[in-house]
Every structure is written in structure tokens, then in C-alpha cells.
Amino acid sequence: MPEQLWFTAFLNHWLAGPVTALLSALHLPPAYPQAPISNGIAMEVLVCLILVVVFAIIRANLSVDNPGTVQHLTEVLENFIDNQCEEIIGHKAPQFVAFLTTLFVFILLMNLFGLVPTLESPTATVTVPLGLAVVAWIYYHFHGVKKHGPIKYGMHFFGPMPALAPLMLPIEIVSHAARMLSLTVRLWANIFFGDLITLVFLSLVPLAFPVLFLGLHIFVSLLQAYIFTLLVIVYLQGAVATEH
User: Fold this and answer.
1) Is 127 exposed, middle or buried (CB count within 10 Å of its CB: 0-12, 13-18, 19+)?
2) What angle is formed at CA 120 by the lines to CA 116 and CA 125, rounded to 5 degrees?
3) In a domain? residue 102
4) Between these two residues, 186 and 72, which has the higher pLDDT value?
5) 21 lies in a domain?
6) What average pLDDT is seen over the chain?
7) What is the Cα–Cα distance from 59 to 135, expressed in whole angstroms?
8) For position 209, what pLDDT does the model report?
9) CB of 89 within 8 A of CB of 237?
10) 145 lies in a domain?
11) Among 5, 65, 163, 228, which is least packed by CB within 10 angstroms?
12) How wide is the angle at C-alpha 243 spanned by C-alphas 238 and 244, nearest 5°?
């Protein structure tokens, strides 16, 4: 039986049966039928629940005349993502801002979870960044197909010259597949080793010194959430760009 955090144990206590049945039906039987939900997935679910509650509170308290601090912060973040999209993608960027803002906040909160006692960062488990990378990969390809149509978008993978198509197609396929790997490894490695270093120094030296590493971990968490979101914006620009 793997070691479980308190929220993981709570979910497995109530949902182990249905989750095990679902995975078995998909021919993916869990190694531990009594605990099919891992710590990483449980922490990701907890982050989702927290964000749903926070966004609901923000929505219920929206005010034009007297906006609160949380509303100000939300608007600043939304404007920041909107400006990034406008600079990279162009005038059709606003349709992507809601997804990208949610993605940034989601990743940032998961990265910071490792600083909370009795919790851990979901992004320190490789399957969670992989899931985010797959969603981002599908998202920008979907909008590429939506913008250009499946045939025209597919022709992009063959390059500008028909003679080079047999060479360009495998290169483009590998390149786009490598984007998922790059997004996954960059986010996972930074958060995993950041959590590991923080735990090591907290256990070896007095509290004053690890505070520096806590500050560094917060900075890395913010930076990695931004880099992940920025790369998705760049990939979106390549997918929806119109040739002139």
C-alpha cells in the first residue's frame, strides 16, 4: 500500500470502488485496488476544488464601483495574460485569454502546494505535468484546425515545398511530439527537485536558512507557471497564424 496524504486517504476511502471499477473497465487495473487514487491526482483534485470555490466567491462579489483586493488581483492577472497574447498572437487573441489565465493560475497553485504542511505539489508527479501538456497540445491543434480547416492545417506539416514533403512530415511530427515532452519535463523537473531541496534543507539546518529556499521555490513556481503558459501562447500563434 503506498503512503497516502490525508486527502488522498479520504478520496480512496469513498471512491476506491468506483475508480477501480472504471480503470478495470478501461483495461487499466490499478496496482492497489484499495488505493487507486495517487497523491498527485488527489492534490490536483483538491486544487480544482479550491479554485472552483475561489472563482465562485470572486464571481459573486464582482463590483464595478467598489472592487475588492482579490478582484483587483484577478483583473491584473487577466490583463497581463491578455497583453502577452496580444503581443504574440495578435488581435484574435482574446478568445484564448480565459483558458490561458485559468491554466496559469491552476499550475501556479499546484506548484505552491508543496509549501503547505501535509500537502505536496501535484506537478512534482510526472503524470500531472504530462496531462497538462497533452491538454495544451490538443488545445492549440484544435484551434489550428478550427482556424484553417483540417486539410489546410494538415498541409502545414508538409512544408512549403512539395519536394521536401517526405522529409518535412516526420520532422514536424517529431517536433510537435517533442513539445509535449518539453512542457512535461521542464515543469516536473523544476518542481520535483525544488520540493526535494526544500525538504532536505528544512531537515538539516535551522529554519532561518531554509526560508531562502522557500522564497526561491515561490519564485520558481511562478516562473514555471509563466513559462508553461507562454509556450502554449507561442504554440497557439504558430497554429492560428495566417500566411500573408
Assistant:
1) middle
2) 155
3) yes
4) 186
5) no
6) 90
7) 26
8) 58
9) yes
10) yes
11) 65
12) 145
Residue 20 CA: distances (Å) to CA of 3, 12, 26, 29, 192: 18, 10, 10, 7, 27
**Could you give the number of structural domains in the chain?**
1
Residue 165, amino acid: A
Residue 243: its pLDDT value, please? Answer: 60
Longest dimension (CA), the chain: 65
* Cell numbers linked to 201: 534543507
Number of neighbours of residue 114 by Cβ within 10 angstroms: 22
DSSP code string of 115-171: GSTT---GGGSTHHHHHHHHHHHHHHHHHHHHHH-HHHHHHGGG-SSGGGHHHHHHH
Whether 55 maps to a domain, the answer reads: no
Q: How far is CA 81 from CA 20, 99, 143, 212, in A?
A: 39, 10, 18, 29
Reported as a pLDDT band with limits 50, 70 and 90, residue 244 is very low
Mean pLDDT, rounded, for 193-210:
73
pLDDT value of position 210: 65
Nearest to 229 by CA among 67, 51, 65, 93: 93
Structural domain boundaries enclosing 193: 72-240
- Kindly report the three-state secondary structure assignment for every residue of 32-77: CCCCCCCHHHHHHHHHHHHHHHHHHHHHHCCCCCCCCHHHHHHHHH
Cα(225)–Cα(110) distance, rounded to whole angstroms? 9
Do 46 and 7 touch, CB atoms closer than 8 A? yes
Tens of pLDDT along 123-148? 999 999 999 999 999 999 999 999 99
